[in-house]
Design a protein that fits this description.
- The protein is mainly alpha-helical.
- It is 74% helix and 11% strand.
- It has one domain.
- The chain contains three helices and two strands; from the N terminus they run H-H-E-E-H.
- It has a two-stranded antiparallel ribbon with strand order 1-2.
- A hairpin with a 2-residue loop joins strand 1 and strand 2.
């Protein structure tokens, strides 16, 4: 539609259309570059957070193993829940001995 209009009315509109097209192309490239950098930074932040989460999970598992192996003194743990209610921990591991 623009080309047909430009052909009918001379080369001035053709030049103006070319300049407008070039400006739109440059603007689209700039917006695309900014979005690419933004999303790359987002991916990096997600990767850093995931690695921190995995590191904390590894430390928690290591602490849990250390605590489980260290508690081999023959004493079980019981917690008072209120009234006549108690919960005992560790008694099922002692039955295997």
């Amino acid at each position: 539609m623009v080309r047909e209009f430009a052909k009918k009315h001379g080369s001035t509109l053709r030049g103006l259309a070319a300049v407008g097209g070039a400006l739109a192309t440059v603007a689209a490239i700039a917006v695309g570059a900014v979005l690419a950098v933004f999303f790359a930074a987002t991916v990096v932040v997600i990767a850093v957070m995931a690695s921190a989460l995995l590191a904390l999970a590894g430390l928690a598992l290591r602490a849990k193993k250390a605590r489980a192996t260290r508690r081999d003194d023959g004493v079980i743990e019981a917690r008072h829940l209120g009234g006549h209610h108690w919960v005992a921990y560790g008694w099922n591991e002692r039955q295997g001995r």
